[in-house]
Amino acid sequence: MYRKEIEEYIESHKQEMIEDICTLCRINSEKMTYREGMPYGPGAFDALDEALAIAESYGFSITNYDNYVGTADLNDKERQLDILAHLDVVPAGEGWKETEPFEPVVKGDKLFGRGTADDKGPAVAALYAMRAVKDLNIPLKKNVRLILGTDEECGSSDIDHYYSIEEEAPMTFSPDGSFPVVNTEKGGLNGHFTAEWTASDLLPKLVCLEAGTKVNVVPGKACAVVAGIDAEALEHAAAECEKKTGIRFELKLDEDTATITAIGESAHASLPEEGNNALTGLLLYLTELPLAKCEQMTMIRRLLELIPHGDTSGEALGIAMEDELSGSLTLAFSLLKVTESGLEGTFDSRCPVCATEENVLEVVRRNMAKKGLTLHNDSMKPPHHVDGNSEFVKTLLHAYESYTGRKGECVSMGGGTYVHSLKNGVAFGASMPGTDNRMHGADEYAVIEELTVSAKIFAQVIVDLCS
Fold it and tell me: What whole-number distance in Å separates Cα of residue 344 and Cα of residue 22?
């Protein structure tokens, strides 16, 4: 119903939609230092102010929630559907070749620039879907609200603020992922643990170790300093360990010490099998050196027994599991610091729907305690699942299939989205399966046709759910 009118409207407004996206993408809206009235700094404030001005110019009723979140309402009827998008972006980063990060440009069928795909482009596509329904005078019985957040990339405190004021709509989708429908998101345990011991003066010894940058990143590099070992022993162990792990080791020798840098392959913690963990590779390397027996090395060996190199499923920790809805548990050992008298580490585990505190958190706690390690977590992030057979999800999938000719199905993911804590929220668009639009990387882009089709799909969903 109304498909012909929707398609014609979006096609006739395509260029205007691209211009509005570019207007927002010229604003550097990465999180900045707090200023009075600007909870995430001037960039996010400016982006929200501009987006609300655009929405208001198209006749929508707007509301600004203390510069955390802004909304645009299609009408004043009972709320039925929320579309949850965000205007903040990750830092510009380096390595851009197609354009400067905040100078959006069209090249061929792509729109390049920070935020074009994540998530300003999809936010504007959703606005144009609402604009199409409004300007075409399609009768609705219920309301649609576009929610524009400004802190999705750094913790989503904006949405916490919004939902402390407003109730959830009966249905919510976020165009901050990919099609078809992501209805299942794994839970998580960022396991933080420590151990202490009495320092030893025996040589040869490990002086210190440090690895990892963020809890959700598989370390591509890890460094350690050892004392009292000759070059031949270091080089022999490096060659043997590289054969076993594929990790490369760079050695820098000083008078009495040596710095060892393990180089592997970084990856997102939700897909640890795609990387080669330099941290666990370095631990394995240290256990193959002729270091003096001491509590420190005993603890490192025990730690490696719990999270051995290549174990990305939590098998050795006793938590490997999977289910049909969300797949297998994954584990990435992401952060570790070792001194002469203690260690502190964190692993990132993405847990399927079948995971509970009893079969994950408490199992880890017990198994670590047996090895002399203390787990400090007292809770887990729960998984998120919305029934794939609900009328809401089936309506989304039908619109997707109708406008793309592709098979619509529900999928799960290890990462979390804006809707993770909402009862009836899913991720829906705005990129098509197989499109790598370099989100968070250099030369981020959106495929223009995918944004256009997304706007059409979103408009159809509004009609189907709210008429």
Answer: 45
The predicted structure's pLDDT at residue 93? 84
Which residues, 6 or more positions from 209, have their beta carbon under 8 angstroms from its beta carbon?
A: 222, 223, 224, 225, 282, 286, 336, 337, 338
Task: Provide the 3-class DSSP secondary structure of residue 42.
Answer: helix
The helix, strand and coil proportions of the chain, stated in percent and rounded to the nearest 5, come to 30, 30, 40
pLDDT level of residue 216 (50, 70, 90 thresholds): confident
- Whether the CB-CB separation of 148 and 123 falls below 8 Å is answered with yes
Angle between helices 391-404 and 448-466 (to 10 degrees): 140
pLDDT at 351 (0 to 100): 96
Is pLDDT of 415 > 80?
A: no
What's the burial of 351, exposed, middle or buried (CB within 10 Å: 0-12/13-18/19+)?
buried
- CB-based contact 168:218 (threshold 8 Å): no
CB neighbour list of residue 176: distance below 8 Å, 6 or more residues apart: 84, 85, 86, 118, 119, 122, 152, 417, 418, 427, 430
- Maximum CA extent, the chain: 82
Distance separating the N- and C-terminal Cα atoms of the chain: 10
What is the Cα–Cα distance from 286 to 297, expressed in whole angstroms?
8
Strands 171-174 and 79-86: parallel
- Give the active site residues: 88, 152
